[in-house]
């Protein structure tokens, strides 16, 4: 499956410049991550497949003559008698076809993501953001001042996670303004501007709570990481 190209080389350069600019007035180290999606959601797709198959089985139990008649008309054989084995085989065939059809339908990504409950998307994005945070920002700086801005495109979700020195001073709700600014740009289809807006908002908050110290050096790369 091809991953969409959300950003140009110029967009990458502008985001890196925004990160460097936002870090000048604080000791914070901003890491930006852009993900196409945060999970494959195969389990959710399979649940939908099973639900559709069970619904078909229930419908067959309510209207068996319809399915039996359809089978007879397809094979043009009206002289046979329905045995328990034939009825069970028909049920198995119907369930298999419905399950396979639902799985194939979900290969169309807009439908697949539409069918994923919002709470599941939010949880999966948070879990993936936490993994990225632990790998790329948490305890990676001398003063524990790393912060991650994580944007997951398919789920339309943003996460901002801060290392302990920042988390002690900044309540999680403070990041809401930065997240709001990013989502506003994303709704307008401006991915690079979303990341730049979030970076600048986060930089202003960091400058307030963890101002730049003498001798502070850039410990984490300013470039955007794409997953």
From TrEMBL:
Q: Which UniProt keywords apply?
A: Membrane, Transmembrane, Transmembrane helix
Transmembrane domains' residue ranges? 45-67, 87-108
Answer yes or no on keyword Membrane.
yes
Record's superkingdom? Bacteria
Q: Is the keyword Transmembrane helix in the record?
A: yes
Q: Which Pfam families match?
A: TPM_phosphatase
Q: Which residues form the TPM domain?
A: 125-204
- This chain's protein is named Membrane protein
Organism in which the protein naturally occurs: Novosphingobium panipatense
Q: What is the lineage of its organism?
A: Bacteria, Pseudomonadati, Pseudomonadota, Alphaproteobacteria, Sphingomonadales
């Amino acid at each position: 499956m091809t991953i969409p190209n959300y950003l140009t080389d110029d967009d990458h350069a502008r985001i890196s410049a925004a990160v460097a600019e936002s870090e000048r007035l604080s000791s914070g180290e901003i890491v930006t991550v852009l993900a196409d999606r945060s999970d494959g959601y195969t389990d959710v797709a399979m649940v939908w497949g099973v639900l559709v198959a069970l619904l078909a089985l229930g419908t067959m139990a309510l209207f068996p003559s319809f399915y039996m008649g359809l089978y007879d008309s397809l094979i043009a054989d009206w002289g046979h008698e329905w045995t328990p084995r034939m009825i069970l085989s028909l049920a198995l065939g119907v369930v298999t076809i419905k399950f396979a059809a639902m799985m194939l339908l979900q290969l169309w990504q807009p439908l697949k993501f539409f069918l994923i409950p919002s709470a599941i998307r939010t949880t999966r994005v948070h879990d993936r953001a936490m993994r990225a945070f632990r790998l790329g920002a948490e305890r990676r700086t001398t003063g524990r001042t790393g912060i991650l801005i994580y944007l997951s495109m398919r789920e339309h979700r943003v996460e901002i996670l801060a290392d302990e020195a920042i988390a002690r001073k900044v309540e999680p709700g403070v990041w809401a303004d930065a997240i709001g600014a990013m989502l506003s740009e994303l709704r307008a289809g401006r991915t690079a501007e979303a990341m730049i807006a979030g970076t600048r908002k986060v930089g202003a908050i960091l400058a307030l709570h963890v101002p730049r110290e003498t001798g502070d050096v850039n410990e984490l790369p300013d470039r955007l990481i794409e997953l």
